[in-house]
Amino acid sequence: MVGLGVITVFLGYSVLYYGLTQIQGGNWGLLDLMIPSKWTPAVAATTKDGHQ
Fold first, then answer.
1. How far is CA 47 from CA 24, 30, 36, in A?
2. What is the predicted pLDDT for the residue at 51?
3. Structural contact between residues 29 and 52, judged by C-beta atoms closer than 8 angstroms
4. pLDDT tens, position by position, 12-25
5. Half-sphere exposure of 25 (CA within 13 A, CB side)
6. Which one, of 17, 30, 21, 16, lies nearest residue 49 by Cα?
7. Sign of the torsion angle spanned by Cα atoms 20, 22, 25, 26
8. Which site among 10, 17, 21, 22 is 20 to 30 Å from 48 CA-CA?
9. pTM for the whole thing?
10. What confidence category does residue 49 fall into, taking pLDDT thresholds of 50, 70 and 90?
11. Residue 27: which residues within 8 A CB-CB, separation 6 or more?
């Protein structure tokens, strides 16, 4: 049961953070933010909307 709670909190936080990045103009995908191995310098350098 504790594991289910931890998974629920992690998914909730991930979706909340994804939503905030989208509101701020970020172009990252949900899995780019959730999976640490997908966060590379190339992904981090993705420009936000409205910024050059």
1. 11, 16, 19
2. 61
3. no
4. 999 999 999 999 88
5. 7
6. 21
7. positive
8. 10
9. 0.79
10. confident
11. 46, 47, 48, 49
Which residue type, as a one-letter code, is found at position 36?
P
Residue in the structure block whose two tokens are 């959730």: 34
pLDDT at position 50 is: 73
Q: Please indicate whether residue 48 or residue 16 has the higher confidence score (pLDDT).
A: 16
Look at the block and give the residue holding tokens 């590379």: 40
Location of structure tokens 């049961």: 1
Q: Looking up tokens 């949900």, which residue turns up? A: 30
Q: What distance in Å separates the CA atoms of residue 17 and residue 32, rounded to the nearest whole number?
A: 11
Residue 3 token pair: 């594991």
